[in-house]
Amino acid sequence: MGGTAVKLTRAGHQVKFVSTCNGDCGHYSMSHEDLAKRRYAETQASAGIAGLVEYQVLDHHDCRLENTLENREEIIRIIRRFRPDVVISHRSCDYHADHRNTAQLVMDAAYLLKVPLYCPDTPIPDRNPVFAYSYDRFRDPRPVRADAAVEIDSVLETKYRMLDCHASQFYEWLPWDKGYKNFQIDPADWNAKKKWLDDNWGKRFHDAAELARGTLIEKYGEMGRTVVQAETFELSEYGEQVSIPEFRNLFGV
Length: 253
Hints:
Blueprint: H1 2-10, E1 16-19, H2 32-50, E2 54-57, H3 69-82, E3 86-89, H4 97-112, E4 130-134, E5 148-151, H5 156-165, H6 167-177, H7 190-201, H8 203-211, H9 213-220, E6 230-239, H10 244-249
Parallel strand pairs: 1-2, 3-4
Antiparallel strand pairs: 4-6, 5-6
Helix pairs in contact: 2-5, 3-4, 5-7
């Protein structure tokens, strides 16, 4: 939701990102310790470009996040302290164990946020936030819904600048993981880097726009027919319940 985050911050909203793991496994040659430090620096550079109020990275090893009571309470305290209107996370039908466990931790927090005697050291918010899922391409048990959609064509350059901050991910680990063992790219050639990002990761935002075409037309009128890339969100049955029009208004940028 990087593009949506940029649009929200520019509209005056406060947006916070949380990474539940420190990224210390996502490389083929760096040490765990050095990689975690590098990944943290990349998150903070990205946060600066997006205008985030905070990008918090939790102290959990990559590929080792578990759905425990301790981790659940950590997530609950984070949400209670920030008091967001909307919490966005993964669906639980994700290929990565960390993603699945993050999804479960966030879903479990949705109700427990408003239980005063659970984590009583952190006061409950005045109201429960709306919970939502971001776009994915998984079809089992069912495809994601585009209950709300945001065009990101207008901020795509900034979104790619955010991705560019995560060099260890997008120019090193992911190419290697995709089979490009000797991949190299000129760090000074922005056009080449932007093309690489668009060719390899832009399709999901094209697919999201097609999935949400009707929603985009309802939101943007005729312009919605020509949106090329979008980010979409599904309303969760957990947390504060709102109508679909109310849900879309939360992403009214």
